[in-house]
Amino acid sequence: MRRALVVPMLAAALGTVAGCDGRQRPSSSSSGGSHDEPRAGPAIAVLDLSDGVPEQAPTGLLGLSPKGASFDDLVHEVERLGHDKDVRGILVRLGTARIGLARAQEIGTMLGALGARLPVWCHADDLSNGTLYLATRACKRVWLAPATSVDAVGLAAQTIYFHKLLADELGLDVDFLQVGKYKGAEEPFTRDGPSPEARASLQSTLSDMRAVWLDGLRQARPAMAEASPEDGPYSARTAKELGLVDDVGYFDEAREALEKESTAVRAEVRLGGGAASRGGDDLSDVLRAIAGESLGTAPVALVRADGAISMEGGGGLLSEGGGIVERRLARTLARLEREDDVKAVVLRIDSPGGSALASDLLWHELMLIRAKKPLVVSVGSMAASGGYYLASTGSVIFADDTSIVGSIGVVGGKIAADKALEKIGVHAETIAAKAGDPRAAARAAYESLLTPWDDATRERMLATMTGIYELFLARVAEGRNIPVERVAASAEGRIFSGREGKSRGLVDELGGLTEAIARARTLAGLAADARVSVVGESSGLLDALGEDEPQGRVGVTPAQPLAGVGMFAAGVIERVAPEAVPFAESLAPLGEHERVLCALPFALTVR
C-alpha cells in the first residue's frame, strides 16, 4: 500500500514543470502510449517489442511499471487495435530483441490476423531465427537496419558434459539414477556425451520444430530462396536479395513510409518504451533534471561522446557507466533535433569505436540533426573506426595536430572455448535440427562460444563484413561530401594524425573544443558569447524507472557462459593498464550476439 502512494505524492509535489522550451505546463506521466491523449487525425500504431516480450514485466522504481511490454500487454493492445478506427497501420519495432520460437509463433499469428484489417509492418535492428519467424508471419513488409545481419542459421541445441571434470580431474564420486531411458537429466554428470536415447529424443524434437519453422517461413514468403532460411548469416543487402526482408533502412524511414502508404498523419506509440521516450514526457524531464542531466536549453548544446561504442550499457542508480551507449545517446540526440531553442550542436568525441550497428544507428541520428542545424565535431585524443564513423557527420570537423583519426575498417570474429574446456574435462555437444547435413551444426552454432567457425561460416562472415565495410565508406563519403574513392584511399584501417587527416580530407580544421564551439556559434548566427550547455547522455535513475534499460530480454546471449571470465579480465586490465580499458570495451560486443565491429584493433596510448 505504501508503494502505491509514492507516485501520486511525487506527481503532486511536481505540480507544474518546465518543459524543454522553458515554458510552464501541467505535469503528466504519459509515456506517449496513453489512449486518453487528444487525437489529431489518423495514426499508425507503434508496438515496441525491442525489450523482449516477457510473460510479466518487472516493476520499476517507486512502483512504476517499466516501459517494456509484457506479453499480456501485447495481447490486450492487439485486441484494442482491432477495434480502433483511428489507426491506419501498425509498425512493430523489434530492435535487437531475442524472442524464442514458441513466443514468436504466437505473436506472429496474433499480428498476422490483425493484418487482415490493417497493414502491419516490422522494423528490426537485427534478425535471429525467432524474430525472423515473427516478422515473416506477422508483417506485410519487413525493414532491416543497414549495418546489421540476418542470423538465419538453422536450429540446433548444445549440451555440456562435466563427467570428466568431476570424476577424472576432481576425483568426485558421481552417482545418479534415472527412471525412463529417455530422461537423460543425469547425463551431463555421468557421461562425456549424449546417450543414443537422449540424442534420438532431442533430434526428434528439433526436427519437428525445424519443420514448423521452415513451413511457416515459406508459407508466408513463397518467393524465399529454398536454402536461405538455414544458410546465413546474411548482410542486410543479401537478405533483401534473397527475399528474407523487403527494405533496408532506419526505423524513422520505415515509419514515414508506412504513414505515407496508409495516409496517416502521425505515429502513436501504443506499447513499449523505446520509441515513446522520444516524445518529451514531462515527468521524465523532471527526473532527468533530478539526476543531473541537462536538457540542452542553451543555444549551443555540447554533447560528449567518450569511450567505446555499444548498443546497450549498464550503470548505477544516478549515473551511467562509461562509454557511448546507442540506446541512450540516440535519445539525447533525438531531443536535440526536436528542440528549436538549440541552434547548434557540438559533438566532442574521444572513442576507439566499437559496435558497427550502434555506430551506424548513431550516424543516422547525427545526420538528422545536421539536416536542421549546424553540427560541429571536436575530436579529443581520437576518433578511430566507429568513432570516426560518428565524427564524419560533422558540418565541420576539428582535431588537434596529434589527435588520431581514421581506422576506417571493420573487424569481426569470436573466441571459441571448446579446446580449453576439453582440457579441464568439459565437453560440448551440438545437435542440429537438420539431420544428414555435416555443416548444419557448425552453422547453427556460429554465435556460440563453445564451437569454432568452420570454413564456410568464416566465408559467409567475411562477406557480411565486406558489406559493412562498403557501407562504412559510403557513410563517410556522404558525411564528408566527397567521393567514395577518396575515402577508400584513406581507408582499410589506416590511422592518421589530425594534421595528416586534414590533408586527406578527413578533418576540416586544426583546433580544439574552444575553436569548435566558436565555429558552431558562427554557423548558427549567434553572438560570440552565446551560452553553451553540456548535455548528458543519460541517467541511471531513469534506467531504474524502466525508461531505457531492456526489460525482460528473452533468451540467453552467447556471452553468458563466460561472463565471469570477461569480468575478471576487465578488472585485470583496469588495474594494470587503465588506458587500455576503452579498447577492451570496444571489443565487448563480440561477447554478445554481434560479430562485426568498427573498432581500433589494438590499444594505442601515446605518451
Polypeptide structure, described:
- There is one protein chain.
- This protein has 607 residues and is an alpha/beta fold.
- 38% of the residues lie in helices and 18% in strands.
- The protein contains 22 helices and 25 strands.
- The strands form seven sheets. Strands 12, 15, 17, 18, 19, 22, 23 and 24 form an eight-stranded mixed sheet that branches. The protein has a six-stranded parallel sheet with strand order 10-6-5-4-3-11, sandwiched between helices. It has a three-stranded antiparallel sheet with strand order 16-25-20.
- Helix 4 runs parallel beside helix 7 (196-220) and helix 11 runs parallel beside helix 12.
- The model is unreliable at 1-38, 274-283, 290-294, 314-320 and 538-569 (pLDDT under 50).
